[in-house]
């Protein structure tokens, strides 16, 4: 995944909260069912004229093709979810972000460069399920990494801050 | 519409979709194997992805058969 230094150890691996994937799953199911729902509604209000059996079977064929594309899209989202990861090591924080299939960003911030860690939890579901955004900001170059939908964000913050050298921590 | 979408045209359409599906699967495998170290999760993902995909293609073939 990532090449670590010889004396570097992974302390924690953080992925987005499962609710992020549940959102995508429910959205995909809704998209998959949408043509059926529309079909039923239009049939009920008599917008669609009577079709021959062959035409209906042909529409069923196109619906299956549509489902194949929804399935591919779902796995694309899953790949994005699964390969987006934050690694907290004893030396740095590594943000690996998969953007689609052909773009991958890896940003690493050394603990001694970290200046600020901010946690934002917004919304009822995020509060109840305990997930939120974690921003990590470095000093000079104004670089920032953001983990969206981090599970237990306060714990992630604590984990990072516990490794930031005390002189930096005290200056925050 | 019915005259254009003959059985052979639908088979060509299904074949093209199948080619896209296989291409996307190869790209998924590349990513999953290169960037993940959790092999058991990846094997499960591959199995589910291909099984459901195969079921959908079988369904489409059956519909073409009925047509």
From TrEMBL, chain A:
Transmembrane segments: 20-42, 58-76
Keywords noted in UniProt: Membrane, Transmembrane, Transmembrane helix
Entry annotated with the keyword Transmembrane helix: yes
Taxonomic placement: Bacteria, Candidatus Zambryskiibacteriota
YdbS-like PH domain ranges (all copies): 88-158
Keyword Acetylation: no
PANTHER family the UniProt entry points to: BLL0215 PROTEIN (PTHR37938:SF1)
Protein name according to UniProt: YdbS-like PH domain-containing protein
Pfam families referenced in this protein's UniProt entry, alphabetically: bPH_2 (PF03703)
From TrEMBL, chain B:
Domain of life: Bacteria
Protein name: Uncharacterized protein
Membrane-traversing stretches: 12-31, 43-66
UniProt KW keywords: Membrane, Transmembrane, Transmembrane helix
Organism: Candidatus Zambryskibacteria bacterium CG10_big_fil_rev_8_21_14_0_10_42_12
């Amino acid at each position: 995944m990532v090449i670590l230094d010889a004396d570097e150890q992974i302390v924690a691996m953080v992925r987005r909260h499962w609710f992020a994937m549940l959102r995508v799953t429910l959205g995909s199911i809704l998209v998959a069912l949408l043509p059926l729902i529309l079909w039923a509604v239009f049939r009920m209000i008599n917008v669609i004229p009577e079709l021959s059996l062959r035409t209906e079977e042909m529409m069923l064929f196109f619906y299956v093709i549509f489902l194949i594309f929804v399935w591919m899209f779902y796995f694309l989202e899953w790949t994005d979810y699964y390969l987006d990861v934050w690694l907290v090591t004893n030396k740095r924080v590594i943000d690996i972000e998969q953007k689609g299939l052909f773009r991958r960003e890896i940003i690493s911030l050394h603990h001694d460069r970290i200046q600020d860690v901010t946690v934002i939890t917004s919304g009822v579901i995020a509060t109840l399920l305990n997930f939120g955004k974690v921003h990590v900001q470095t000093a000079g170059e104004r670089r920032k990494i953001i983990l969206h939908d981090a599970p237990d964000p306060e714990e992630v913050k604590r984990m990072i801050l516990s490794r930031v050298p005390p002189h930096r921590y005290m200056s925050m | 519409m019915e005259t254009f979408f003959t059985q052979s045209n639908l088979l060509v359409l299904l074949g093209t979709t199948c080619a896209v599906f296989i291409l996307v699967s190869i790209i998924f495998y590349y990513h999953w194997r290169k960037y993940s170290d959790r092999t058991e999760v990846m094997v499960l993902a591959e199995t589910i992805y291909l099984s459901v995909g195969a079921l959908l293609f079988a369904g489409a073939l059956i519909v073409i058969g009925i047509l």
